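Researcher: Before we compare anything, I want clean individual predictions. No alignment, no superposition, just each chain on its own. First chain goes here; please echo the sequence and then give the structure tokens.
Model: Echoing the first chain and its structure:
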Amino acid sequence: KGKMRMLSRQALLLCLLASTQAFYLPGVAPRAFKDGEAVNLKVQTLVSTETPLQFDYYQLPFCSPKKVQDLPENLGEALVGEKAHTSAFLATTKKNEYCKTLCRKSYTPQQMEEFQDFAILDYRVNMRLDNLPIAEMHLFAYDDKPKDTIEIYNLGYPIGRKLEEPGSKTDQYVLNNHLRFQILYHPVESEDGGPETDGNYIVGFRVYPYSIKHTYRGKWNTTGGAYARLSTCVQPPSGRFTQHDPLIIDAQDGQEVVWTYDVEWVRSNVKWASRWDVYLQMNEIQDDKVHWFSIINSLVIVVFLSGIVGVIMTRILHKEIQRYNEVALSEEERQEMNRELREETGWKLVYGDVFRPPPHAAILSVYAGTGMQLFVMSILTLTFGAFGFLSPANRGALLSSILFFFVLMGVPAGYVSARFCKLVKEPNHFKTTLLTATVFPGACFAMFFILNMVVWAKQSSTAVPFGTLVVLMLLWFGVSLPLIFFGAYLGFKREVIEVPCITNPIPRQIPPYPWYLHIGCTTLVGGLLPFGCVFVEMLFILSSIWQHRFYYMFGFLFMVFLILVVTCAEITIVFTYLNLCAEDYRWWWRSFFTAGATAVYMFAYATYHFFARVHVQATIDLSSVCVYFGYMFIISYAMFVMTGYIGFISTFMFVKKIYGSIKVD
């Protein structure tokens, strides 16, 4: 029987391993292409690092098939404007083709001027093949290590570039009208573990753009061969060209453009599971060092704050509580204790006011609930990202996950809001619950709607269609709002949170306190330290958002997020203790603003990033400025509410703990 059990366990383990090997996330399972099978090259958006506005591929008069099909998109793709369409580019698996004519078009001066404007702003064309983004590949080496080269990428290819001619008085731009697609493939092998047994996996999609002023003999014959009429192509086609001039954009008279492309298939040793490595490494060695340096720097701050909190909790509070609770004391000891109590332990003198509800207590309850909602949403999103569920192969997955987790976390939001609403004795429970469901989402949706109108006026593909706005409204009012009311129902059914001290009927007068304990000072200093823990990681996040790079360091980001939570909690506890020692019991909103000020520094850093690193041309474009700062305001507002909640809830637990540890007559 023992042997049979062991054999059955081994068989079960083998089955689990086999099922794990055959498991693929939806939408990212490998697909094998047979020799000679047609592959679809999809075109997407035109993006630039000079402006946050992006445009649809066919908003410029490129060559197009007879019927352009819009490919399906998820909610995340729709919100960021990543629209994909079929294209006129044709490719066949493992068949090299050169100097294929895409189309020949005559353009008006206005159309050529449009091409030139996009070239000036360094717009790049995004394409995809088998869910891989197209990229220009470059070799990079450090000055001190010229032989150690690494492969880096630049997503998409430029529409055009500035023509560098010495002595030229006017700026001229050339149009990249010839593309050489290099498709890397890896034959299916049994050890790859894929569901297919033969065929080829596509593991790379590269592009090399050229500007060629094509020439041809005689009249253009649309019924002729694909490349026989072009005299700029070496015959037979081999990827080489005769001596030619670049295609300079003529924005005054318009011109004729012949669009061509090559397709090269190159065998690669890269396995299908590793095909995203070149996109994700992004100078991997240097980035890893920067990330680890940021985490070590943040840990130093955490250790420093933890030491301060430890001193407060172990040395000062423990001794003061022990002395304050002492019963058998002589008269001299009592007098000495009273003197020290007044001089050193002012926090005990405000026990009758420390739990007095603050002004606008209902709004604080609302933000506490929303902060809880954002906090849990962030933890779930980072957890899923750290486990690899938010792969860049799943386009739009990150933003979709953020939205769905936020909507589904309505229950804890309503619950927390209701609990604090009962604590501060807010009579209108319905109003507080409704504000929890509408204040933060309403402000974000209003800003998003205004920004959508701005980009819609610019005819940018970033503009969200009306149907997507309806979906967002349904998620808000059909899912989030009922869940918040359900959570509030559960919270109001519970008993009021017990606090250790009874509030006096008459508020205690607050004596003068030092200038450095003023709410302005504590807020500025309190937000600076948490921001110091995250500003390096924030640089990478801003670069991924506005400079169109992939961000996949969720493991680092999760560690930085935990450090941020600890730092916000500890810095608010320290400042709350100092204010209580100064007999200032107004800690409710102070704790929220002290930690929430982290978002102010984040917005200030985003402003610096705008003028120093990205969108140089956009500084004179009002719509681009509105889009950038509008979206950064939404992100900073969410960060303000979440960090404010972390500071508030940690301070509440601290105050409840220390006042629950003393005996009060």
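Researcher: Okay. Second chain, same rules.
Model: Second chain and its structure:
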Amino acid sequence: MEIQERKSGKIYALSSTTSVPEWLGERARRNLAKSDSAFRHRITLLQDLEMPVSSNKVRQSPDGRFLIVGGTYSPRIRCYELSEMSMKFERYLDSEVVDIQILSEDYGKLAILGADRSVSFHAPYGNHSVIRLPTFGRAMAYEKTTCDLLVVSSGKRVSPGAAASGGQAMGEIYRFNLDEGRFSQPYNFTSALRQKKGVDADDTRVLQLGGSCIAVSPTHSLSAIGAEDGTVRFWDNRAPVNSSQSDVDLTPFLNLDVASATSGHGFFDENSNSGFPGEVTSICFDTSGIHMCAGTKGGNVALYDMRSSKPLFIKEHQYGLPIHTVQFHSGSGTVLSSDPKLVKIWNAKGSASSTRGEWNDNDGGFGDSRDDEGIGGALGSIVANVEGTADFNHFMISGDSNDPEGRNSGLLICTGEQEKLQSFYCPVLGAAPQWCSFLDNITEELEEKDGALEQSAAGGDAGAVQTETVYEDYKFLTRAEIDTLGIQNLVGTPLLRGYMHGFFIHVGLYNRIRAVAKPFEYKEYRSQKIKDRMEEKRASRIAPKTNPQKINAKVNPDLADRLQAKSGSKTKAGKAAKSLVEDDRFGGLFSNPDFEIDEEAEDFKLRNPSGVASSKVRNDRDMDSDQEDDYDNDGGDFDANGFTKINDENEKWGSESDDDDGHNDFHDSDSDEDGFQGGKIRGELYENKRKSSKDKKKKDAKKKKAKKKQKNVMYEADDYVGGGASAIDIGIGNVSAEADANKSANQTAFLDAIEEIV
């Protein structure tokens, strides 16, 4: 926010910073805020209050709730809802905007004058209808009593013969009746002719001077049209108009010569500027209907009392550029007139104690009014000059729903030759509108700070400067942040200042509240910083390869495994597999039974022959491994060529007797009373003895089983005869060992046969 110092007060330029591109990231915005103080101290009056290239016109709806802006490029209009402080909609047009008129209380009915001789009517749903004009339009106004849309047209080209004959050229003001939906008889006025040289030296064109601006009085139905010949013509819309073209009511009832009144005033440079300096370029009425202002192309503004043909005052703009907008401000009694370089604010009513600046019949001129500056000064005295960063095209005083016309408002919104619309707050004119009332709080803080600095510079209390606060020392908090800090009770107090959708709080107070609400925040911040630095150091190391999370597939598990294995590859197939695994849209492929793949189907086998063959090989391998597992679990005999497992029941290697004491379940008896000697009998302790013997057998069986697992298994070669020889000598398991065994057996059999014979 830029502050312009004036004698009467300060002017705050709310949009002095350049616009920030939409594509600029949040990190770049933070860096820009650190380096650029203007960007850091900026104020966003309305969100997206800008155009791609430039803006032409700005209007506010009669109910004060909406703002309509026309701009380019491409040609468009934008509607802003002031209560929401943001853009409501945007519509594109076929041609550039020349003028805009709001026909209803809100944005529901719009009339847009285009540069292609068209007037388009817009409804809430969009473009409703388009009409064409006979000539190009310059300005437009709406007359409520007759429901007529008045369009000022440019001059027509006149043939050299008609110009030589001395005939009068007639200018026209087109009237389109919105109630009947048709053109009415236009207003006519006598216009002068002007010669204009063409490209060639011999090419001379004769043009009729047309109108350039129009205004309708809000008090009485007077329509004033400013023309290129420097004359303001008046029509009374209350007079009945017949359909006859020669009706006298179609001609103006009064002509006011502004060019003659402003002749000799101003700083118009004929060498650098072309055209007639007395041409009327802007007109406006005040709310009382008594005063009128007319701006000329030469940079002069004439203030008139409607009861007199002599101007009360003529205000000169030193740049000598055309005046494009003039407006009364009834709340402060001033007039705002603007050329492309600045907006000049000056007094329209002289003070009761001063006669300076009023008409003096003795010298036939105006007195000097430069000394009595400020509100309530002499007539025509300067209140303030508002300078922008780009050329102005149009301006308006923005109001609110209680003051739609901005009579007591101090907010100026200007269109110009730049992207952003320029906005200025002038407390000397009035308070800020209700929809941006936070501007008053900001300016009050700044003025208090400046007052404390002046007091300190004059030798006052220097400590007062440190206690005062300014806008830059405040932090913005939303409703959610206020609830988090637990300071809802401060809402409505001077400690929290309302702004848009939140509040401003002093930075010092905010830091103290935050330290109480979050006492361990610094420790958490420090630990998080340490953790981040450790992570940065670890990032330079070789990161371990992380296995992707396995898919929990209830359906098609084989397909899920294959896709999971391929997803780690960087090939085209791997990327496709990864997209299938990670995309939630294919989640039903592994969870919905309707998508289960039947690998036994004939169609599947024909389409995937390689997959069927690989699955068959995989199944065969699984069967072989299952057989080996069965053999190991069942403890089957070793099936090897030429070997037989030695039965451990016949030969017990280092085994002990099952019964350590050599007793069995029965007792030998030597008694003769038993019936026979040595018979097996059952004594009294037979049952106890049997139970203990069974328990002992179970323990011995467990021991035997454990030893069986640990002891070595012995094998012997088949058909081995010759127990005296060592198995190592013949080579167990060798083919030559089998041959030697057969040979030894044959020899033994031969020797036995000889012994029998002998």
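Researcher: What stands out in the second chain?
Model: The chain has 16 helices and 41 strands. Additionally, The two ends are 141 Å apart (CA to CA).
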